[in-house]
């Protein structure tokens, strides 16, 4: 059983629960180990919406036939600087780790590499895969297209997914600069939370079914849609991701993508895109990391505005949370704990 002490769960305990559940679902141990690390690491960053909370729906997706517990991703075409992978509907985080591993290997020889994946589904937090590259001393980018839940300026209805994009860039003495974001104004979970509490929201978050901005969060599930961050700018970035992860890979795109949470027995065919750049092709790696350190320090040393104690670089808050979680355990929210308790029950974990 999941052991919770003073509202926190130790990383090893949480990892063990995830692995045992995936083994019960029929996955190979090596695949389960990789997937558990993706989900638990995400929780240590404090990104609870995309960590172990996703284990239950992923296992349901697998149980109902949308994913294959014993499938193996396959490179079907490649050259020095690129690869195309058929995920064969294996557990998506495992597929994504394999894809970024290949991308890193190719970038070390070609300088820059792209890997596209099709026949996949929800791979969790994109940031994990970009960080794989940064840990290897490379610049990493990862992105995926998701089922349509977001409108675009001037449209009525859902057009694109809240397609996430992430980057991670190594430094020297400073920590990697690391950003993971969706292309909607806010996460849909914030809209649902406001609806649950009976609160209104800013009219820049969602539109109703007629495409009109609204402050009523209930309109999202009444046929409304998320708004793109920064209007046309967010729309443009989301469209780029749709092209790189969906069109170019051979995956489904826009309205062809089913909703993996509800269409659990369906093959979703999301696409993923991974890019890695070796900075050593431009200059000695020590020069690059020294320049990154200088950039980070210049930003952090900028005078603060009244009421601000500290300027954060992208990723710093996540690193602080992870440091605390590795020592003291992860302060999982109640909804995540409830999901994990349900996993224990549904998969009869001792």
What does this entry show, briefly?
The protein is α+β, with helices and mostly antiparallel strands.
Backbone CA Rg? 20 Å
Mean pLDDT: 97
> Can you give the helix content as a percent range?
25-40%
Q: Looking at the structure, what is the overall shape?
A: globular
Q: Number of helical segments?
A: 10
Cα separation of the termini: 6 Å
CATH class of the largest domain: Alpha Beta
Spatial order of the strands forming the largest sheet: 1-2-3-10-4-5-6
CATH superfamily of the largest domain: Malate/L-lactate/L-sulpholactate dehydrogenase, NADPH binding domain
Tell me about the largest β-sheet. Answer: 7 strands, mixed
* CATH architecture descriptor of the largest domain: 2-Layer Sandwich
CATH fold description of the largest domain: Ribosomal Protein S8, Chain: A, domain 1
Secondary structural class? alpha+beta
Order of helices and strands: HHHEEHEHEEEHEEEHEHHH
- Tell me the β content: 5-15%
Low-confidence stretches: none
Count of DSSP strands: 10
Element layout with pairings:
Elements: H1 11-24, H2 29-44, H3 55-63, E1 74-79, E2 82-86, H4 92-110, E3 112-120, H5 127-135, E4 139-144, E5 165-169, E6 177-181, H6 188-197, E7 206-207, E8 213-214, E9 225-226, H7 232-247, E10 270-277, H8 285-300, H9 316-328, H10 334-346
Helix pairs in contact: 1-2, 2-4, 4-5
